[in-house]
Amino acid sequence: MAKELDFLTKRSEDYSRWYNELVVKADLAEQSDVRGCMIIKPYGYAIWEKMQRILDDMFKETGVQNAYFPLLIPKSFLSKEAEHVEGFAKECAVVTHYRLKTNDTHDGVVVDPAARLEEELIIRPTSETIIWNTFRNWIHSYRDLPVLCNQWCNVMRWEMRTRLFLRTSEFLWQEGHTAHATREEAEARARQMLGVYADFAENYMAVPVIRGVKSETERFAGALDTYTIEAMMQDGKALQSGTSHFLGQNFGKAFDVTFMDEQNERQYAWATSWGVSTRLMGALIMTHSDDNGLVLPPALAPIQVVIVPIYKNQEQLARVDAAVAPIVEELKRKGISVKYDNADNKRPGFKFADYELKGVPVRLVLGARDLDNGTVEVMRRDTLEKETRQLEGIAAEVETLLADIQRNIFEKARAYRDSRIYECDNYEEFKQRVKNGGFFLCPWDGTAETEARIKEETQATIRCVPFGMKQTPGTDMVSGRPSVARVIIARSY
Predict the structure, then answer these.
(1) End of a domain among 240, 257, 288?
(2) 159 band by pLDDT with thresholds 50, 70 and 90
């Protein structure tokens, strides 16, 4: 039925163009008139809202509370942690004035030169500095710890090359910030939150991920360790899909956040931060979708079931309306989001194609003949398979089908990912094969020099030192020195 709508470019022809077209045609987002920024449309935002709601509950289960901190950060705050400011300096947008005035010809406005700020303000690229400046007022004793905060907000990082959801100058995210009495507690929290992200990615997004720790070069600015989940897209590229940082005492020292411990000795607080963003929308699209449009996991689909009536006249429509009403109510009681589309301004074929494009997991089609036979046509979006089922008991069957779709798309993505993880010890072979995508498990000597050479010569980066993968001894394929670990290397978004 895709012929009812404008065709999408096929993934095999131009994967990047396919993605860009799909985001727009599926009504997820569009470009803004503000350079590098995007407008998230209601259907796209509905998916993000589901992500927020689920993640928010998962955070709170671990003891985290939500708070909110200012958008604007005094420039001096960013100067207090040298590595942090160096990491973000080139991406910062700066507010220098606080007022406009009418121009001399009274047909526009200009910046009022008399309204220059005494100290410039930075639109937050991330909030460690302003939050740790605040923590200094909250933390005095070990009894005040841990502090477990999260905020849902927007941030600004001035990007030169942007792509909807994957990389925009302004984006939405959550950023968690915690303070602890001991190193062990902070490290455990950083790993715990990585586990929350991995659980969400696999069990709700149906996206298989590899957990690991970043190399020193790839760490978050100001962190001692950055833990990551890495997902593989259908073109074989990696997408960093969530990070959790162990910040040590760097921010505690920079902002003088100290507390009296149980021995009545003064200590600096230990820190973590962790975040995921609307980049997860990109991961969701690129992991599952096909040449007909989105394929959404039922757990995150704004509409999990759509029901489309087939009728020739108002009498037949009235019969279908009456039959559908109790089905809709039963599905809603089961917590399933359902839409009955009996609008008469679009043909059924158009509706089929539109809901297919938007990735609705299950479609039910019901007409007068079906009512006479006590049947309904059921289509599942993940496989595009259609079959006729008995109308009686269809709500329970749909509930089972949704669970099966959720499992199936995860297993499909995992099988694809696993089939494209390669162990490789030969650099010349690696340079040829990495062009076609995939995750390469390679021996690394642990040096930044080797890492930089790989990136310069292949555009691939060390994604992580993976947890739970075999670490057979080896020789670095670039330098010939003994390896310290096998790492995942891939081209990435």
Answers:
(1) 288
(2) confident
